[in-house]
Amino acid sequence: MSSPLDREPDARGVLPPDIHDYVATGAGDEETVAANRDAWGRWWLRPRVLTGVSDVDLTTTMLGTTVSSPVLVAPTGYQRQVHREGEVGTARAAAEAGALFVLSTRASCRLDDVAAVAGPWWLQVYVLRDRGITEEVVRRSVAAGARALVLTGDTPVVSTRSRRSSFDPAHAATMARDLTDVRDDSAYEQAPDVTYADIGWLREVSGGLPVVVKGVLRADDARACVAAGAAAVWVSNHGGRQLDGVVPTAVALPEVADAVGSDAEVFVDGGVRHGRDVVRALALGARGVGLGRAVLWALAADGSAGVADLLAAYEANLTETMQLVGARSPSGVTRDLVTWR
Amino acid sequence: MSSPLDREPDARGVLPPDIHDYVATGAGDEETVAANRDAWGRWWLRPRVLTGVSDVDLTTTMLGTTVSSPVLVAPTGYQRQVHREGEVGTARAAAEAGALFVLSTRASCRLDDVAAVAGPWWLQVYVLRDRGITEEVVRRSVAAGARALVLTGDTPVVSTRSRRSSFDPAHAATMARDLTDVRDDSAYEQAPDVTYADIGWLREVSGGLPVVVKGVLRADDARACVAAGAAAVWVSNHGGRQLDGVVPTAVALPEVADAVGSDAEVFVDGGVRHGRDVVRALALGARGVGLGRAVLWALAADGSAGVADLLAAYEANLTETMQLVGARSPSGVTRDLVTWR
Amino acid sequence: MSSPLDREPDARGVLPPDIHDYVATGAGDEETVAANRDAWGRWWLRPRVLTGVSDVDLTTTMLGTTVSSPVLVAPTGYQRQVHREGEVGTARAAAEAGALFVLSTRASCRLDDVAAVAGPWWLQVYVLRDRGITEEVVRRSVAAGARALVLTGDTPVVSTRSRRSSFDPAHAATMARDLTDVRDDSAYEQAPDVTYADIGWLREVSGGLPVVVKGVLRADDARACVAAGAAAVWVSNHGGRQLDGVVPTAVALPEVADAVGSDAEVFVDGGVRHGRDVVRALALGARGVGLGRAVLWALAADGSAGVADLLAAYEANLTETMQLVGARSPSGVTRDLVTWR
Amino acid sequence: MSSPLDREPDARGVLPPDIHDYVATGAGDEETVAANRDAWGRWWLRPRVLTGVSDVDLTTTMLGTTVSSPVLVAPTGYQRQVHREGEVGTARAAAEAGALFVLSTRASCRLDDVAAVAGPWWLQVYVLRDRGITEEVVRRSVAAGARALVLTGDTPVVSTRSRRSSFDPAHAATMARDLTDVRDDSAYEQAPDVTYADIGWLREVSGGLPVVVKGVLRADDARACVAAGAAAVWVSNHGGRQLDGVVPTAVALPEVADAVGSDAEVFVDGGVRHGRDVVRALALGARGVGLGRAVLWALAADGSAGVADLLAAYEANLTETMQLVGARSPSGVTRDLVTWR
Ligand SMILES: Cc1cc2nc3c(=O)[nH]c(=O)nc-3n(C[C@H](O)[C@H](O)[C@H](O)COP(=O)(O)O)c2cc1C
Ligand SMILES: Cc1cc2nc3c(=O)[nH]c(=O)nc-3n(C[C@H](O)[C@H](O)[C@H](O)COP(=O)(O)O)c2cc1C
Ligand SMILES: Cc1cc2nc3c(=O)[nH]c(=O)nc-3n(C[C@H](O)[C@H](O)[C@H](O)COP(=O)(O)O)c2cc1C
Ligand SMILES: Cc1cc2nc3c(=O)[nH]c(=O)nc-3n(C[C@H](O)[C@H](O)[C@H](O)COP(=O)(O)O)c2cc1C
């Protein structure tokens, strides 16, 4: 049964099994896919009473941009595979909601089409074997209005996934191909030699956009990112798709948040299922909380309208949850609102 | 199979599914409904031997009123939905047992009818959007004999419940409507702006009755309540009906009890299933232990007689449990009788 | 499928369901029946290698009596209900094995018949409402050769059991009735007023036999027993039959053993299933390890021969286990051989 | 469904049930068989990002011998029972892969046939009741090229296994019989009197080969082995086949590695299922990680080619895992890459 916060059952009804599995799958035994979800639930909420919660305001900022909610759209590739509207549909729904949209390097719509409908948006960067392509994608994105770059660090190689699918993502990522005339497929593969130095390189190439490193799961890495010039770190294990058996994001988050303190902003994603998980993430130090598969299921189920409904449902559910824990704004969601069991 | 301590199976046999579900349901994924129950069981009992337990006396006091047992009837609304005798039946059974009865603001019988049969009783207060109605309910209850006010703090808004039911509680709460001539439905909704200041307001309106804050799950909140004039705090998460994923009451209780020390009395409810849980609650610092759904199932199964049987079964079971842990009175149930596993 | 260490499946095949259930049942939700078993398994063994284990000797002493093994027969009543040979069959098998036998106050065979075949044995004492009967049972047992008294402290009242059985134990406990001419049934009920003072009383009545207090689950109680003159304490929760939700014996044992140190001997029972559990108990400070239901199932399956087979199987299994942990005698089973997980 | 890393399903299809069960079984309730596997998974990985992982090199050394990978073939007996190529097939596959092969005393092929095809290999030693046979096996192995001796310490007696099998291993271990003319079966049984002194004896008999003690699960034993002249210790519980309920190897490993520090090398086996477990083992201090049943299933499924495929699959999977945790060589896999949950 579908709920407004989880349209996976609806999506399963309309997607070819191969595409469904491509979205759902994780690496290895899919332990991390499950552990991500479970770990949020192991943070018990400790609501406050009698605080007066008539007006809750979810507005916040992310790297200086004002957004309507801490909930954001995490980058996921190949969105036209799940619905013909693809990234354009998702970007439009996010814009309507006033939520941040992150566009994947592996997008399947034309950059200009996405940018035309998008509200505030960031570009997710995979450094490709042919760095020239990466530079081109970055430059064009800057020109099209991207406000930050999200360098994904957890994918030096694309890992073997659990459920093999006949869906071959390589050729579905058409955005980058549209922007260059390189035809050699291997040029578009992940570069395995990405290092901290690439944070500076991306700042340069982009003319100074803030860089967020996505895939950070440790305090020392977080500090190293900041030292190398990152404006933010994004706690993620790629939704359990890259390396199974890693620490769940709800466990890694407080360690990372404590490590960077006020030196950088902190984002998180992985297994978030409702407003309670968002509140937990805020309490543990996140400024923004990403939705990956949830957006894809909603897009699959009902295109841009589906994503708009999803974001609206999150807003309502998060507002109610904030009232019930006794917080009126994201900054009012403090660490004492959760406890590990 | 029904047991004398749990008439849910019997109730299911007689209640319309909608009403059954309305009573049974919790918020979210109903994790807290289950966690409340489980958490009691995670406190292992550490019985004492050779203490001589010929005579066990369950008598105790609650805010100065002598009652026959630490077990009390928690406030639950709309009791006529589960049995035509409604709150009158429950109040009469509690009176016969010598147990404390707490009357909900959302009661469905006439106040005077309840007061006429009740033994010691308290009024549970929801501050409504139209505070005049709340004042009226409080004043009339004081006149009718209420000995304390229980301000429920965990319901600034009524949360979305898991099992949607076509039962609409709004119009079933007839007690308050009977006492006023306000017809506007929204006047009867929860006021989301309740704060600690309302503790003082309720003392004033009631001419000085002691105020108990219900829904407290944290040490700091408990101390704040006492500082604001509360005579007691009631550790509760509304039986898992308001916010899923919160700390179970059996976990929050010792923190709260330690925080208030002897400055206030402490009550608790949520997932209590037998005398062992009552003993655990007493050991962890509770003076009284509330039954919510258990009373409704008993009322549904057999009206006032069902509730009387339930309270008698608890008395017998609690007496046996006290003998087996080596305690002769509630005050003899000390902290060392339990240990967390 | 029956194993030599667990004849329950065989017993189920021959026992009337009522009697089977009477033996199998526990109090409450039978959580402690399960927890007793589980808790042993949570002590991981830490075997030593290269210690040379050609000859393992299981011989030990219990309150000065030499026995062939730390495994002993715990007291259980009404043994003629499970097999016509009753306590006589069990006592004979224990005598052949050189193992300690503990005779229940609720035995169903004649005292002299048991004593005639028994090897080293102790009398388990329930103080009855008519203390004269208790005195008589003790005195006659002393005369018949009992070497110690085991005062059961966990049964001031007989608790309500989970599976109700039409088997009424009251009249099946014929040993005590045979020794007196009291006909009043209530005289044979448990006395709920037993205290530490009764340790001294039993020493007196018995002319100075050592007293073991059975049912101890806490350090403070253990010390109090020793201070009151007990020669040993027996960590037990009555196989989960008296109070559900108590601390498992494998958890209580080290606390108790540490508390009494060398001032008293320590015994334990509850959920023991094989030599590994016996080794765990020895490592945690027990001198003797009792089998309750296991003996009844063996008796039911094959009378005295069944019990003999059971004790032989334990001896073989325990010997192998000792070799594999690298210990050659019970005193070589030290605390470091286990670790809690 | 078989995976390249686990050919058990294929093996089940071709093996007689008795042989399958002989390989699969563990001691007791097979808790340790399961716990070994589970315990690796309880070490969460903490990957590093942006480290540059273009070239991963798995090469390492074991007691001075260079091998292509930390993955090695643990000693298992009677390999001709699972496939006619037996130890010769396994040794050849290991040689092709450049991996270490450990030959069991209970091997079923002729020593010279194995040595003829083997790459780097060690002899696993069971001290037999007739020590002359052991000496002969050791001397002939040294002559044939064995580079170290692995003294198995966890098998002073062969334990009772859970699934009884009509397969009788005694006569299937023909290697040792081929090398001597002793016909008395009992001469080939395990000697239960093996002690630390036998480490020195084996060095002598072998003319100074390094000795590895296999079956160590404790810090104190590990230190005692080193003090007695061992060059390495091998953390193992014999794949859960000797004593059920012992500490899983993934739990014992860090304790042992910390205890020996740089005084000896540390190996481990038990329940390893993929490259992630190998990385965990390296992080916890192991230099080499053994595969027991996995090799037998591969051998059963496809003879020498099956084992070669298995080792190749491990190399690929381990390489990918190393890239995803951000390590380029076994020595780069540091303790901080894992955390216990
Ligand atoms: C189908 C799919 C494609 C993804 N593509 C990308 C991508 O191109 N770039 C990236 O950084 N993360 C990608 N991710 C990871 C997401 O950004 C996000 O980290 C993850 O989905 C969060 O977990 P959740 O799905 O449980 O919400 C992808 C995830 C999925 C499910
Ligand atoms: C059907 C139902 C109605 C309730 N109505 C009220 C109410 O009107 N006021 C209130 O403070 N609590 C109300 N509660 C919460 C109970 O007072 C109590 O906190 C809870 O039921 C305890 O958990 P238990 O049902 O597991 O015993 C209600 C609970 C139920 C199940
Ligand atoms: C059927 C039955 C009768 C028992 N009768 C007695 C008894 O008369 N006196 C006593 O001290 N304990 C009695 N016990 C408790 C045992 O002595 C022992 O503590 C318990 O059975 C140990 O747990 P186990 O059955 O898991 O081994 C009885 C237990 C059973 C199962
Ligand atoms: C069928 C079988 C035979 C074995 N034979 C031996 C042996 O002869 N010598 C030895 O030291 N270990 C022996 N072992 C234990 C292995 O060396 C190794 O410790 C264990 O299999 C590792 O666990 P795994 O099977 O989970 O990988 C045997 C294991 C199996 C499954």
Order of helices and strands of chain A: HHHEEEEHEHEHEHHEHEHEHEHE
Q: What's the overall average pLDDT of chain A, rounded?
A: 97
Overall shape of chain A: globular
Number of domains of chain A: 1
Main pleated-sheet profile of chain A: 8 strands, parallel
CATH secondary-structure class of chain A: Alpha Beta
- Sheet with the most strands: spatial strand order of chain A: 4-11-10-9-8-7-6-5
* Classification by helices and strands of chain A: alpha/beta
| CATH topology value of chain A | TIM Barrel
* Percentage beta strand of chain A: 5-15%
Total helical elements of chain A = 12
Radius of gyration of chain A: 19 Å
| Proportion of residues in helical segments of chain A | 40-55%
Strand tally of chain A, please? 12
What small ligands are held by the chains?
Answer: flavin mononucleotide
Low-confidence parts of chain A lasting 5 or more residues at pLDDT below 50?
Answer: none
- Please identify, by name, the CATH architecture of chain A: Alpha-Beta Barrel
The CATH superfamily of chain A is known as Aldolase class I
In oligomeric terms, what are we looking at?
A: homotetramer
Largest interface: A-D, 33 and 25 residues
Binding site for FMN (chains A, B, C, D): 75-77, 104, 124, 152, 214, 236, 269-273, 292-293
Organism (chains A, B, C, D): Nocardioides agariphilus
Pfam family, one (chains A, B, C, D): FMN_dh
InterPro entries (chains A, B, C, D): Aldolase_TIM (IPR013785), Alpha-hydoxy_acid_DH_FMN (IPR012133), FMN-dep_DH (IPR000262), FMN_HAD (IPR037396), FMN_hydac_DH_AS (IPR008259)
